[in-house]
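note to self — DONT lose this again. spent like an hour looking for the file last time. sequence + predicted structure for the chain T wanted, 145 res
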Amino acid sequence: MAGTNAAGPAGGRESGQYLQVQTTTDSRAEAMELARLAVEARLAACGQVAGPVASTYWWNDELERAEEWFVFFKLPADRYEALAAFLAERHSYDEPEIVATPFVAGSASFLAWITDETRPGETDIPRQRGAASPAGVTSGSDVSG
């Protein structure tokens, strides 16, 4: 694709170095809070909430149906264990869904952004006001909406 700045099948990086991790929750509020806390702790470069979705599953030998929200996280593969431990500790479910899918390809600039934003121990250094993020949102904009 033109403009993706991807080099080869993994965007110039080895395939599987980056993951999308997903979980589900029974409320939008919990989904938003998990996303915020994980990103704030730099366990993921971004957290996206989508839903509601209709889920059907077995739980305690009963067929259940529920309305749930997805939370998707983008992160380097070496941050998976820390994110999984965080989700297991903070999630309201007894057995939360925590699954990871490796990236097969991605633009080099987006993958570099994921790495930069998940450096452990890094302090928040404000970006220049008006600087565009990879999603096209400028710093200083309210994206909590």
